[in-house]
Amino acid sequence: MVTQSIRLLKCLVYLAFLMVGITLALGNRAKIDINLFPFPYSISIPLFMVIIGLFLVGSVFGWLSTFLHYRRIQLQNKNQHKKLSALENELAALRLESLNVNG
Questions:
Q1: How far is CA 21 from CA 18, 45, 50, 100, in A?
Q2: Which residue from 8, 25, 39, 49 has the fewest beta carbons nearer than 10 Å?
Q3: Looking at the DSSP assignment, which residues form a beta bridge with residue 32?
Q4: Where are the domains of the chain?
């Protein structure tokens, strides 16, 4: 039940973004010139393509930075888990040794 309502909410958010994008595209159809500075080239494209392109580039960089951050956390978690397992084994061995000495 909860996952269905979350899925519906996601669809509504995506639909809202789509409507904003369509409105943006229809409102900004004027062409602009983009000079590729070090090179003697210039391109003329609609403004909405520039805005959408920059949004996509920002989204990719945001996803990549988030992925790398969580990957680093995963690796740290894995290392900590290994250390914890080693310490638990050492503790169990020391308890066994303590029981053998006292018993």
A1: 5, 17, 12, 73
A2: 39
A3: 45
A4: 2-102
Structure tokens given for 25: 């595209």
Amino acid at 79: N
What contacts 51, CB < 8 A, 6 or more positions away? 24, 28
pTM score, two decimals?
A: 0.61
- Alpha-carbon distance 54 to 56, whole Å? 5
Structure tokens at 14: 């995506």
Q: State how far the alpha carbon of 27 is from the alpha carbons of 2, 6, 51, 89, 98, in Å.
A: 37, 31, 12, 66, 79
DSSP letter, residue 28: -
* C-beta of residue 62 within 8 angstroms of C-beta of residue 45: no
Q: What is the pLDDT of residues 38-74, one digit of tens each?
A: 888 899 999 888 888 888 899 899 999 999 999 999 9
